[in-house]
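Whether sequence alone determines local backbone shape is best considered at the level of individual chains. The sequence in question and its structure tokens are set out directly beneath this paragraph.

***
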Amino acid sequence: VLCSTYVAEPDCWNKVALRNKIANPRRISPGTKLYLPIVWLKVQPAKAKVLTVEGEPVLALDDGKFKIIKKGDSFSVGDHLYSRKGSFLLEFADGSQLMVKADSDVLFDTLTLYGDSGMVDTRIRLNRGRVKAKVTPSKGSGSRYEIVTPAAAAAVRGTVFRVSSTEGSVDDGEPVMTTEVLKGNVNVGNDQGDQSVDAGYAVKAEKGKAVLAPQVLLSAPILTPD
């Protein structure tokens, strides 16, 4: 069952036995911990499912036309979505969720599931706009969740954060990424370096420049009755 469920490597049983120093792979005691290289695991495409929709966001089709996104739709690698004036909530294979806000443009670069291990590889390209991510804690070293913008990338393992991507200032027009961390930790980086951002902090990154040092988020406003 182990080999048929998790492993794509030929001659699975013998290799698992050698890797874990097991004399008889046909008689493995219950509860035995087995270590398998990630490259051995079965890789299968995953989907992103739409949980809720507001307005009329669309999927770009190959013929240049658009299809309105509806609750229950599923998307794969390469699908290009536009929220327009609406918004939508996505759920990934590991239960992670992504709220795509109005005027956003997202593309799925990677949606991969490693067998039944619970590990996923999710890479989302935010070309423009704003998203809020709630990421399920990693179930192994092979898990990856990244939101990539033209300015920088945010890589996480179990956290809640917001990302916005804009075209930049009028003067230089370079793309700018802002990341606000609400829970956990996010690593934001580009070719010029990276910053580790804890909950309660935010960073700004501009294409071609080093990511700025984290700044404390403003406290939530306190509403009082008149």
In short: Helices lie at 2-6, 12-19. The longest strand covers residues 120-134. The CA atoms of residues 53 and 86 lie 8 Å apart.
